[in-house]
Design goal:
The chain folds into two domains: about 120 residues, Periplasmic binding protein-like II (D-Maltodextrin-Binding Protein, domain 2, 3-Layer(aba) Sandwich); about 90 residues, D-Maltodextrin-Binding Protein, domain 2 (3-Layer(aba) Sandwich), CATH 3.40.190.10. The strands form three sheets. Strands 1, 5, 6, 7, 8 and 14 form a six-stranded mixed sheet that branches. It has a five-stranded mixed sheet with strand order 11-10-12-9-13. Strand 2 and strand 3 form a beta hairpin. The protein starts with about 20 loop residues before the first helix and ends in a 5-residue tail after the last helix. The chain has about 270 residues and is an alpha/beta fold. It is about 35% helix and about 25% strand. About 40% of the residues are buried. Helix 2 packs antiparallel against helix 10. The chain is built from ten helices and 14 strands.
Length: about 270
């Protein structure tokens, strides 16, 4: 069964453009950015993340800190490189612009590696293999059994995510964009949309968060695609990028990565 037709709503992507008025101003700007990234051993790495995306990054009200799989991975890499970290929580769609302008040094927020994003930032080797899934209300299990049943329906997704991009490909769908994934789940529960398209581990974590949630919602079993997550760094920060990549390889080889993975997902990485 299909839903009523609706207009496609596309997220707005904000880009930061640096206009250099003189050659000297350009040189000074370049030097400033370079200095921000040429941090000595023992200094602070500024990590940009969208801290409402469990289990990858989220605010833990019990200890007042931002925690999650991504946070533990970045902490481990930073420790190996002799850095401490500073968490900067911001909107997901603001992280890449923040990297490009030197506001943060590292973007760790379940970033799917895409060609479009790779034009703007450097990605480490993949550290997590994911996929998109469809989350619906349990009462709609007979009506919506695959993504084709979402044609002409209303779909919720988080701004700037691959889930939002995939939702826009559904024929006739009206796509409602929200700043956080929690808002998409709330809208689904309030019957403001027919489904949420998002990362499988995030949808799964939401279902496991409380018993009532598992009863009210249902995740379609088939993944819509396969995605690789990477840690993002600025294009002009190649040296730190190489160090991050090396540290990540070392973590995978010596077992620290597997231990962090088990902590958040309950099983060894595939």
């Amino acid at each position: 069964m299909q839903c009523a037709a609706g207009a496609l709503v596309r997220p707005i992507l904000w880009e930061t453009v640096l206009k250099l008025k003189t050659l000297m101003a350009g040189v000074l700007a370049t030097c400033t950015l370079t200095a921000a990234y040429a941090a000595p051993t023992g200094s602070i790495l500024r990590i940009g993340c969208e801290a409402t995306y469990p289990p990858f990054e989220f605010f833990d009200s019990k200890n007042g800190k931002t925690v999650g799989f991504d946070i533990d991975i970045v902490k481990a890499i930073a420790r190996r490189l002799g850095y401490s970290i500073e968490i900067n929580s911001m909107g997901f769609d603001a992280i890449i612009p923040a990297l490009m302008t030197g506001t943060v040094d590292v973007g760790a927020s379940a970033f799917t590696i895409t060609e479009e994003r790779a034009k703007k930032v450097l990605f480490t080797q993949p550290y997590y293999l994911s996929g998109l899934t469809v989350l619906i209300r349990s009462e709609d299990k007979k009506r919506i059994v695959n993504v084709e049943d979402l044609n002409n329906c209303t779909i919720c997704a988080q701004i700037g995510t691959s889930g939002a991009m995939r939702a826009q490909e559904v024929p006739g769908a009206k796509v409602k964009i929200f700043n956080t994934v929690a808002e998409t789940f709330m809208e689904l529960g309030n019957r403001g949309c027919d489904a949420v398209i998002g990362d499988k581990p995030v949808n799964s974590y939401f279902l496991k968060s409380r018993a009532s949630t598992a009863k009210r919602f249902y995740q379609l079993p088939n993944e819509l695609n396969t995605e690789e997550f990477g840690i993002a760094l600025a294009k002009n920060n190649a040296e730190l990028h190489k160090k991050f990549d090396k540290a990540l390889s070392d973590m995978k080889a010596d077992g620290e990565y597997a231990n962090i993975y088990r902590k958040w997902f309950g099983a060894a990485p595939k």
